[in-house]
Amino acid sequence: MQRVTLQIPMDLKLKVDAEKAALNQGFSSLQELVRVILSKVAQKKIEINVEQVIILSKKADKRYEQAMKDFKEGKNVYSAKNVDDLMRQLNAK
Predict the structure, then answer these.
(1) Which residues have CB under 8 Å from 22's CB, separation 6+?
(2) Going by C-beta distance under 8 Å and a sequence separation of 6 or more, which residues neighbour residue 56?
(3) 9 pLDDT exceeds 80?
(4) Is 53 within the bounds of a domain?
(5) DSSP 8-state symbol, 28
(6) Is there a single domain that holds both residue 77 and residue 41?
(7) Do the Cβ atoms of 49 and 43 come closer than 8 Å?
(8) What is the Cα–Cα distance from 79 to 90, expressed in whole angstroms?
(9) Is the whole-model pTM more than 0.85?
(10) Rounded distance, CA 66 to CA 85, Å?
(11) 89 with 78: CB under 8 angstroms?
């Protein structure tokens, strides 16, 4: 088997914290943890999804909550019977 070295620049604190976590989970090293994860990803035995969390400002959160309340109560909600009706509503005012 041909071996290569993977270098990953990272913050020292992240490396130390990750190494501690790997050892606490029974891995002999952080490198072993990375090898196991990469092997499982390559074999399609695990999938990794990265989702971005959106945090609204207080003002935007309040506006969103009000919109959801209005939607549940049927306030400020419009429906269109067809495309022409929708375009008429969009172009009103």
Answers:
(1) 29, 30, 32, 33
(2) 64
(3) yes
(4) no
(5) S
(6) no
(7) no
(8) 11
(9) no
(10) 26
(11) yes
63 and 85 in a common domain: yes
Q: What is the DSSP string of 24-63?
A: HTT-S-HHHHHHHHHHHHHTTS------PPP---HHHHHH
Block residue for tokens 């067809």: 82
Q: Tokens standing for 35?
A: 């090898």
What is the residue range of 43's domain? 1-47
Q: Is the separation of the CB atoms in 67 and 52 below 8 Å?
A: no
Q: What is the mean pLDDT of residues 73-93?
A: 91
Query: Which domain-ending residue is among 28, 47, 66?
Result: 47
Average pLDDT over residues 16-31: 97
Is the pLDDT confidence value at 78 over 90?
no
Q: Answer yes or no: is pLDDT of 8 > 90.
A: yes
For 2, the 3-state DSSP assignment is coil
